[in-house]
Amino acid sequence: MRNSAQNRRTRHAAVVGGAVATALLLAACSGGDPEPGTADGGSTADAAGGDGTVTVWHYFSAENQVQLMDDYAAKFEEAHDGVTVENVYVPYDQMNSKVISAAGQQTGPDVVVFNGAEWSTLALAGALAPMEEPWEGFADADQFPDSVIHGMDDHVYAVQGYVNLLGLWYNADILAEIGVEPPTSIDELEAAMAAAVDAGYQGITLSGLPQSQGEWQAYPWLTSQGFDYSDLDEQALTDGFAMARGWVEDGYLSQEATTWDQTVPFQEFTSGDVAFAANGNWQMGTAEAEADFEYGVVPLPVGESGKVYLGGEGQSIGAFSDDPDLAWQYLTETYYDPEGQLLAVDNVGSIPSRLDTSQEAEVTDNSLLEPFATTLAQNGANYPDPIIPPENVAKLQTAMGQAWSAALGGQRSPEDAAADVIAQIQALIG
Amino acid sequence: MSHSAGPVNTIVKILLTLMYGVPLLWILLTSFKSSSDVFAADATFVFRPVVTSYVEALDGALVSALQQSVVIAVGTTALTLAIAIPAGYGLARTRGWAVSVGLGLLIVLQMLPQTANVIPLFQIFGSWGLLDSTLGVVIADSALLVPFATILLRPFFRAVPPQLEEAAAIDGASVLRSFFFVVLPVARNGVATTGTLVFLLAWGEFLYAVNFFLSPGTYPLSALLAQQVSAFGINWPGLMALAVLSSIPVLLVYALTYRLLRDGLTVGAVK
Amino acid sequence: MSTPAPAAARAAAAAPPQRRPRHQSRYLFLLPALVFLALFSLFPLVQLLRMSLSDVTASTLNSSWLFVGLENFQEGLASGQTGDALVRTAVFVLVVTVIGMVGGFAGAVALRTRGRWSNVLLAVMVFAWALPPVVNGSVWKFLLADAGLLNVVARAVGLTDTALPFLYDQHWALGAVAFVNSWAVIPFNALVFRAALLNIEPEVFEAAALDGAGRWQEVRHIMVPSVRPTMLVLLVLTIVYGFRSFDFIYVMTYGGPGTATNTLPFLGYLQAFSQFNFGLGASTSVVAVLVVLVLAVLYARSIRKEEKE
């Protein structure tokens, strides 16, 4: 036994040795090559404090999203000799706790790409570096609308390079078969779903997972019935839950939605038996690759009171980045750069957050992006709702996600679910 | 056992074959599918097999993850056995309140939800410099498995006739000497069986690995697998291909210790 | 991390060679485990207890914690979450234990004969047991879906017209996840039971056959008594396994629909790692530990009884 312990130790030493050698090599490369960064921004790469590597943590695994990360890395490396961009994948569910626990050990990535709505969780844990200084010095800062700049107490903690939001995807083949037009109101949607079900198809897919993804998907439907976090109307919330539960009972929506994240329902949609899917613009690549039918998108038909979250990933500099200047430079040349934002449009179908870029032909001429742009202008809402105190965002999302899931799944009646979650929200909003 | 298998036996066997055969078959089939075939109902069994997932899975990351898994599993097995063997023997040969307290304690430790241990261990490792190191994960996994291994080992040592040791004592052997040269050889099957189980469990453990390695570049296979499920997409064929690849070593270990596992697990047999 | 065994050896050697009760010196064998577990299991447990009595959030995790007494426990109980989770955990453990033990025993009886089928089946079962829960959970989530194999078969044989709501009806979901957990534990239990059955002398069966015993009588009067000592340990291990199960719930339902599969470990996870209320999460885990304590006392007492006999 002592023998195998010995083996393990030597093997461990070998692994560590290898890692050290690699690190030295990398250091030698970047150190021995003092190429002054001559980026378009005009600033100079200050590699003195760091190792010449930009470590970027992200939670993307879909092919087109990973491609975008690779493109960004290539773009930045090309402009800066001796600089490496290392994209590191962390699963969505683990991202926050991983960033927070790394910060507790005074370490972490140079750049974090995370669910923009959760910036407060990370910022409050001291995992994000305040960015207001470079942000104020950023010449293009005025191109970004306030809704994509996140921060508190005069600090800027995250800025989004693009916006993601939900729309109503439809299967044009099915709609043609049952003879309906893409819906513009909830009534039309319900009539279309009824017709689709009669014709042997499923009505709609969406996510009813009892966590933040469920809350994000529930919000448009709940607000369409008049619900609002700043004016807690129990009846409106009950109506919202009852509407969705009604879809389940009428067979438009599978109760299975309570086990779906946002990926599975879209896979169900692309397999061709579903008339509608409430899903995001980021699915454009998946739709193109997987769907062998005609499809299109219209704004979610949630009426005038209905609101759609403007989500998307926030980008931040890690609080313990070993080279925050280089990290900032990476952000300005990728996520915050006109060319970089167009890469996101091409790869993922994201809506650029820069005002100038959002007017480019690539965006305005894309018929699939157009409905999302319309929604953004007419029904767009800050995500999360600003009325929620930053420290309670995660709790509120879980509570609402669970209530949504419970109502969809029939665990609670719409009335009970609404009464329950309103009480919780009141405690959280104060 | 001269009986021929009765009808009830056959039914149970058919049921078990379905229960365990179907999921494994499904894993294997999916790993050869293209992702568009995964959700298509008509392609459940008939589809055009592709090896893209395997080609994609087989890269440098897999090799380093494999190496990491081997280091962690072997290290954990060695450390766990080094601690659990004497403990199992000690508990088998002592009587009275110490045994009750000791066993009760082991059960408590064994029963703690792993999620409850992650936070405090993270802090402790942080202050002791064990974070982000293979050693830290080995220690955490061992802390998780020592109670299990001790509970499994104790009956094996109890099954060693005390007369053997008494005879050794009369010949003048010390306790330690008779433990190493009399007891251990008799209980070697139990040790090997327990070691195999510990190895397999350490191989599959991912919660500690995911949390105590600060950067995903150093993950073992199990953690790599756990990462395949994400908010923006599950690559089913990829996940299953990785599962198949990462279970090949498990298969090897099983083939080597098959006989032991099949016949050796006489847990709690006080004979 | 030098192996602590030499320390024990030295201590043992230093003791007077004779006249020392051998039982007492054997306590030294417990020393390495004692030290190791005190450092890496008990100490974290103390930290957990401290955390459960403090207000710990993401922002204060890495600084000093504010002592709040029993506030976290009160919060958990008042919201009803802890109580609900306790009940669900109890149901969950019951299902896992019953199916796991009965299935394991039935499997052992069916597989105790040697033959190609038994050998291959045993191998397949152990292999499934050794696969990571992430993989097994994902596969079962797929098989139990509306369009999954189980529902397809159920419809084909006319068992049901509509899909069975395995994972999205509040009662089915808890049962389904518990079933998959028992599925994962049956192979291990079957192996252990089987080893105990193989220890029965063939003469016992021959004698029974001469007395005209049927198969059920064989099972009842020979096999069940012979696995009884095994059963106790295995029962505890199975209960433990069900009690701390987390991975399958995480992969298959994420606690849903609603909160229908929020058991104690999963609730603790949600509170700590999704809501970042570490204090509340720790208090849920401490409740779990208290339940465990009761079980452990019961186990230790029955062990003592067994040894006195």
UniProtKB/TrEMBL annotation, chain A:
It comes from Isoptericola sediminis. The lineage of its organism: Bacteria, Bacillati, Actinomycetota, Actinomycetes, Micrococcales. PROSITE patterns: PROKAR_LIPOPROTEIN (PS51257). GO terms for cellular component: ATP-binding cassette (ABC) transporter complex, substrate-binding subunit-containing. GO terms for molecular function: maltose binding. InterPro entries: SBP (IPR006059). Belongs to the bacterial solute-binding protein 1 family. Pfam families: SBP_bac_8. Coiled coil: none annotated. Residues 1-27 form the signal peptide. This is Extracellular solute-binding protein. GO terms for biological process: maltodextrin transmembrane transport; maltose transport. The keyword Transport applies. Keywords: Signal, Transport. The keyword Signal applies.
TrEMBL record, chain B:
It holds the Pfam family BPD_transp_1. It comes from the Bacteria. One of its GO terms (biological process) is transmembrane transport. PROSITE patterns: ABC_TM1 (PS50928). This is Carbohydrate ABC transporter permease. It comes from Isoptericola sediminis. The keyword Lyase does not apply. The chain crosses the membrane at residues 12-29, 70-89, 96-113, 133-153, 197-214, 234-256. The lineage of its organism: Bacteria, Bacillati, Actinomycetota, Actinomycetes, Micrococcales. CDD domains: TM_PBP2.
TrEMBL record, chain C:
GO terms for biological process: transmembrane transport. Gene3D superfamilies: MetI-like (1.10.3720.10). Residues 86-299 form the ABC transmembrane type-1 domain. Keywords: Cell membrane, Membrane, Transmembrane, Transmembrane helix, Transport. The keyword RNA-binding does not apply. One of its GO terms (cellular component) is plasma membrane. SUPFAM superfamilies: MetI-like. It is a multi-pass membrane protein. The chain crosses the membrane at residues 27-46, 85-110, 117-135, 172-193, 232-256, 276-300. It is found in: Cell membrane. The keyword Cell membrane applies. InterPro entries: MetI-like, MetI-like_sf. It comes from the Bacteria. PANTHER family: BLR7065 PROTEIN (PTHR43005), SPERMIDINE_PUTRESCINE TRANSPORT SYSTEM PERMEASE PROTEIN (PTHR43005:SF1). Belongs to the binding-protein-dependent transport system permease family. This is Sugar ABC transporter permease. It comes from Isoptericola sediminis.
